[in-house]
């Protein structure tokens, strides 16, 4: 099964990326994912379910430790060819 996860971490800071946002980027870029898109207002990752779920676990734990006060995420199962 392949998954796509969209997530954001808060609080936002438009002047400088907060520590939790930098940690989130490090986590997803280090994971064995097929696609990673990191942006200022949202992030998307795709890959095999095991890799995505492992990355989400690390993302939640590490961004909370780095000061995130809210993490929003959406998980979608991808059909063939997506």
Fold blueprint:
Layout: E1 2-10, H1 19-30, E2 35-38, E3 43-48, H2 49-65, E4 70-78
Antiparallel strand pairs: 1-3, 1-4, 2-3
Helix pairs in contact: 1-2
Could you characterize the architecture of this molecule?
By secondary structure, the protein is of the alpha+beta class. 35% of the residues lie in helices and 34% in strands. It contains 2 helices and 4 strands, in the order E-H-E-E-H-E. It has helices spanning 19-30, 49-65, and strands spanning 2-10, 35-38, 43-48, 70-78. Strands 2-3-1-4 form a 4-stranded antiparallel β-sheet, with helices on one face. Helix 1 packs antiparallel against helix 2 (49-65). The mean pLDDT is 94.
Concise synopsis of the structure shown:
The protein is α+β, with helices and mostly antiparallel strands and 82 residues long.
Please name the defining characteristics of this protein.
35% helix, 34% strand, 82 residues, alpha+beta, four-stranded antiparallel β-sheet, elongated, 2 helices
């Amino acid at each position: 099964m392949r998954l796509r996860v969209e997530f954001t971490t808060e609080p936002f800071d438009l002047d400088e990326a907060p520590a939790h946002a930098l940690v989130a980027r490090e986590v997803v870029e280090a994971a064995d994912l097929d696609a990673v898109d990191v942006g200022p207002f949202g992030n998307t990752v795709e890959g095999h379910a095991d890799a995505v779920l492992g990355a989400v676990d690390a993302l939640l734990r590490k961004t909370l430790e780095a000061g995130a006060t809210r993490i929003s995420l959406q998980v979608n199962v991808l059909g063939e060819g997506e």
